[in-house]
Design a protein that fits this description.
With about 80 residues, the chain is mainly β. It is about 15% helix and about 50% strand.
Length: about 80
C-alpha cells in the first residue's frame, strides 16, 4: 500500500495545488461507470490525506471520509 500511495502522491504533485490556509489541496473528478467520483487530496505538514466521495447530486451534499493517509516527507 505504501508504494501505491507514494506513486499516487508523485502523480498528484504534477498538478497545480490550491493553497487553503497553509494546506495544499488538489481536487479531481474521475469517471467510474455512470457516476463521477470526487477525489480530494490535502497535504498538511508532509502528510497527504485522501478523501473520496461519489459526486453528489445537484443541491445534495455527501460527507467525506479519509480513506488513506500517507507521510511523504522524511524527517
Amino acid at each position: 500500500m505504501k508504494k501505491l500511495l507514494a506513486s499516487i502522491v508523485s502523480q498528484v504533485k504534477r498538478f497545480a495545488a490550491v493553497n487553503d490556509h497553509g494546506d495544499r489541496v488538489w481536487e479531481f473528478y474521475l469517471p467510474a461507470s455512470r457516476r463521477w467520483h470526487y477525489l480530494n487530496v490535502k497535504e498538511y505538514e508532509c502528510v497527504y490525506y485522501f478523501f473520496n466521495t461519489a459526486a453528489p447530486a445537484e443541491g445534495a451534499g455527501e460527507s467525506q471520509k479519509v480513506f488513506a493517509r500517507y507521510r511523504f516527507c522524511r524527517r
